[in-house]
Recover the amino acids of this structure.
């Protein structure tokens, strides 16, 4: 199977270029396996990866124009030649490795931790199964970055727009009945950019390897803002 | 060019559950703390833990920490230290509540309390009916915990060095640890981090085997750094093969599947665990189930074109249970085995999963080494989590006790560092020769020429480990294995990097990891060869019995001369009566 892989070594290259590799495909082969084969052919090829089973979120790449997690993408589903590029819109460090600093900063900006003002009980804070169900589809985010780096609004304003990943995290805490910072969280999302740059293009939903729905989460935040404003 | 240097009160190497739970204790003090991780923290392998964390909360069935302690001692095949086990089982309860307060989205019962499921080796009332002790967030408990701990560290403004690789510990002539030399992966520049206390929390080493549930990053970095600093590794022969990896791939299928009612069948559709463990059946301890599966396959009752695996039946549980309690497993089954667990059984076979052994510590995370007739603390050095050996797992770890171990002892280490810093207000003088030695480990890879590539030696090494230090171990297989491994080790100096670039050079990282795999893997094989008994995960068909008279003792492997020493098991708990060794049946 033919792969075209984006290469860039800042020590040697002025700009990224595509390099072709031929990889012997095995049954059940994932894209990460193919990238590892390419690395066997050329050890200087760099990409991030770790768990190999879609939970650590390291190996997001752009495949034939779509952001995907390499370790859970079967090569049999991909059109040849498979074009593999780094995530769009992020500064390239080397080959498929991009600088995700801004993505992480946006995540941190939404204060992604449980805020509890009441004194903690001796045991667990109680939560009904129904209330806990509200977190399904939110807490599973693996921060791979497939969504935010597929979002045109994030491409244009990565310093001002939180992006789908961070907003999904924001809603994860707003939706948590244990959290007691709803007003502060909503206030912090005010303004034209942080939340409201989302134009419901829904690239995030399309690419999320965990099947999560940041657009819907953003909609929930907007609804809650309206409700609280009344 | 002068070496860049930074000074912190405490340095934590590794940002999984142990490292982050140590860091969060320290973040709430005045101490200056650095957390170094070779990957962004939420990529650490704690993220992959599925089933849950044990604590005797008694939310579902009656329970108490003393029963949990009994099960853990028995599960350890009486090699675990009972003081440490008592400490862990007592601490489990406040630890899980603290996690919940930190935001972990545990699954819930109708009462609003944390959901708990049955796991292998758990009993009520010291060996009675099955207990339900494993606190779970669906089958993504590790992910839920790791993210919550990272989030709390972000809140507390912990200083992270993301994507920095630790090369070696720095120590002075008295053996005190002064910090570590690390490498910034992005720039390729080394950095010397001086610290009054250093915590190794680098996780496991499953990558020493070819087929493993462990991530690419689990290369035994901390254990190898300890060995190179002259510290022995304890009980490394005890390596857990998880019974249910996806056949041929190694990805994990949680024990929680069997806890929820799934069971194993062979070619004839027989529920074979009934023969091996009449009471506990599929929820017998992991070593027992793994050996049963390998035996079924060896005796020709395997499934598939090559009759090389067995099946894990889940479909009778119904779509509701599977999608509510085991959604991640359904996903993994679909992706990696092409099977929807709701309709078809999953093909499974044991996979290298967890090292019970590690860097010897006391229950406060302090690294301890033999000295004269007793033991002494290595000044300035702590270890916690899978890279450490307290020892709470002994010869076999129970499911749900690894998340518990990393959290309890990560926390304990963090708290002890706080005390330690009160007494040790100044940095010890730097030891330049130790820094030079660590730099040499890095510059060695600048050598050019036509040597063997890293991957070639790595492949041979991992295959040899798999063939010679696996589930069943005879003298013949083991001694041949150790010779082969030593011969491979002799070839390490011939290995050359072909890529000498600086920026994000992953080939260089893999070369440094290869050395760690060698040091850690050989400690496993060598310790295994020397132990002439069967105990827990260490199964010797040529020495089929447990031999308490000669072998109820901890192994200590030293890198220098591949030397072994032994020390007694601590059978005296903190406050309760000791559990004397008994035959271990499930």
């Amino acid at each position: 199977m033919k792969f075209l892989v984006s290469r860039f070594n800042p020590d040697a290259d002025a700009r990224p270029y595509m390099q072709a590799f031929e990889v012997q495909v095995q049954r059940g082969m994932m894209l990460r396996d193919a990238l590892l084969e390419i690395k066997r052919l050329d050890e200087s090829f760099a990409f991030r990866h770790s768990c190999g089973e879609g939970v650590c979120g390291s190996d997001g790449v752009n495949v034939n124009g779509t952001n995907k997690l390499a370790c859970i993408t079967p090569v049999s589903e991909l059109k040849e030649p498979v074009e593999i590029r780094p995530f769009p819109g992020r500064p390239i460090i080397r080959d498929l490795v991009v600088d995700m600093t801004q993505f992480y900063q946006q995540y941190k900006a939404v204060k992604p931790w449980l805020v509890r003002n009441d004194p903690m009980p001796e045991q667990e804070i109680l939560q009904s199964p129904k209330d806990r169900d509200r977190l399904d589809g939110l807490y599973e985010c693996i921060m791979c970055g497939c969504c935010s780096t597929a979002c045109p609004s994030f491409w244009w304003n990565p310093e001002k727009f939180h992006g789908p990943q961070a907003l999904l995290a924001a809603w994860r805490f707003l939706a948590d009945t244990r959290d007691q910072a709803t007003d502060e969280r909503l206030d912090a999302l005010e303004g034209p950019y942080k939340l409201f740059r989302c134009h419901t293009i829904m690239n995030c939903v399309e690419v999320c390897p965990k099947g999560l729905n940041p657009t819907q989460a953003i909609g929930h935040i907007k609804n809650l803002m309206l409700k609280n404003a009344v | 060019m002068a070496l860049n240097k930074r000074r912190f009160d405490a340095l934590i190497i590794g940002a999984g559950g142990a490292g982050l739970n140590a860091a969060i204790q320290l973040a709430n003090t005045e101490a200056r703390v650095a957390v170094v991780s070779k990957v962004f923290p939420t990529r650490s392998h704690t993220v992959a833990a599925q089933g849950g964390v044990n604590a005797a909360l008694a939310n579902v069935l009656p329970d108490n920490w003393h029963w949990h302690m009994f099960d853990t001692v028995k599960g350890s095949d009486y090699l675990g230290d009972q003081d440490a086990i008592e400490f862990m089982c007592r601490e489990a309860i406040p630890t899980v509540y603290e996690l919940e307060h930190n935001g972990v989205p545990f699954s819930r019962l109708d009462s609003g309390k944390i959901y708990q499921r049955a796991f292998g080796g758990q009993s009520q009332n010291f060996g009675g009916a099955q207990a339900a002790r494993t606190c779970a967030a669906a089958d993504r408990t590790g992910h839920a915990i790791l993210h919550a701990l990272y989030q709390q560290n972000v809140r507390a403004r912990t200083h992270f060095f993301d994507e920095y690789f630790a090369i070696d510990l720095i120590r002075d002539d008295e053996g005190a640890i002064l910090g570590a030399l690390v490498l910034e992966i992005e720039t390729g520049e080394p950095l010397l981090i001086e610290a009054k206390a250093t915590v190794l929390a680098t996780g496991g080493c499953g990558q020493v085997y070819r087929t493993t549930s462990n991530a690419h990053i689990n290369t035994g970095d901390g254990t190898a750094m300890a060995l190179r600093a002259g510290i022995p590794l304890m009980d490394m022969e005890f390596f857990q093969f998880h019974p249910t990896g996806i056949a041929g791939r190694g990805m994990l299928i949680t024990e929680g599947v069997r806890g929820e009612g799934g069971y194993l069948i062979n070619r004839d559709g027989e529920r074979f665990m009934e023969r091996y463990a009449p009471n506990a059946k599929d929820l017998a301890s992991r070593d027992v189930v793994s050996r049963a599966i390998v035996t079924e396959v060896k005796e020709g009752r395997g499934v598939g074109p090559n009759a090389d695996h067995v099946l894990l039946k889940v479909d009778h549980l119904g779509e509701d249970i599977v999608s509510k309690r085991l959604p991640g497993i359904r996903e993994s089954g679909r992706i990696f085995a092409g099977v929807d667990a709701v309709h078809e059984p999953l093909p499974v076979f044991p996979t290298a999963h967890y090292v019970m052994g590690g860097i010897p510590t006391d229950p406060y995370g302090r690294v301890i080494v033999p000295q004269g007739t007793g033991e002494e603390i290595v000044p300035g050095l702590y270890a916690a989590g899978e890279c450490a050996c307290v020892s709470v797992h002994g010869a076999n770890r129970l499911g749900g006790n690894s998340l518990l171990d990393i959290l309890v002892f990560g926390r304990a280490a963090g708290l002890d560092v706080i005390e330690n810093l009160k007494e040790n207000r100044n940095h010890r003088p730097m030891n330049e020769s130790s820094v030079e030695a660590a730099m040499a480990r890095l510059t060695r890879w600048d050598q050019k020429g036509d040597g063997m590539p890293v991957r070639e030696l790595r492949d041979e090494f991992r295959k040899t480990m798999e063939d010679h230090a696996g589930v069943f171990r005879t003298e013949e297989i083991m001694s041949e294995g150790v010779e082969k491994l030593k011969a491979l080790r002799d070839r390490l100096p011939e290995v050359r990097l072909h890529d000498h670039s600086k920026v994000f050079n992953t080939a260089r990282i893999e070369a440094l990891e290869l050395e760690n795999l060698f040091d850690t893997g050989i400690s496993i094989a060598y310790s295994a060869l020397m132990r002439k008994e069967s105990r827990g995960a260490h199964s010797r068909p040529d020495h089929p019995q447990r031999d308490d008279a000669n072998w109820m003792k901890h192994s200590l492997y030293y890198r220098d001369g591949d030397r072994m020493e032994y020390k007694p098991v601590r059978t005296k708990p903190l406050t309760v009566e000791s559990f004397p060794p008994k035959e271990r049946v499930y």
Summary: Chain B has a mean pLDDT of 96. Chain B touches chain A through 63 residues (CB under 8 Å). The two ends of chain B are 62 Å apart (CA to CA). Residues 506-530 of chain B form the longest helix (25 residues).
